[in-house]
Amino acid sequence: MLRYTLMRLGIFVGCLVVVWGLVYSGLAPRGLGDSNGLWIVLLALVISAPISLVVLRKQRDQASERIVQRVNRAKAGLEANRAQEDAADETARTRAQEQTS
Q: Which residue windows are transmembrane per the record (predicted)?
């Protein structure tokens, strides 16, 4: 997951540098008034999103699989704890019934 995040950040920073260069060289519009910095960041986000979607498909799928595995392990652990609690509760109820009988 960290690898995917760093690669995504790298693509964004690369797009940010390219957009900044294009804006300051006059090839891309500068934005309105004092919004130049925000314009550059938003334009870089819009450009980097589809690039990341295509280029990082394999890494995104791998990260997704790892997350699913972690969730499944956590669910299995919770189910095991519930089973232990249910067994202990059933044992206590059985003993209580035996004592009252």
A: 7-25, 37-56
Q: Classify the C-alpha dihedral 61-64-68-73 as positive or negative.
A: positive
Closest CA to 48 of 22, 4, 1, 10: 10
Q: Say how many C-beta atoms besides its own lie within 10 A of residue 56's C-beta.
A: 18
Question: Residue 31: which region, alpha, beta or left (left: phi > 0; alpha: psi -120 to 50)?
Answer: left
- Cα 35 from Cα 37, distance rounded (Å): 6
CA distances to 9, 36, 38, 58, 95 from 32, in Å: 26, 7, 10, 38, 78
Lowest mean pLDDT among 7-11, 40-44, 68-72, 84-88: 84-88
Q: What is the structure's pLDDT at 50?
A: 96
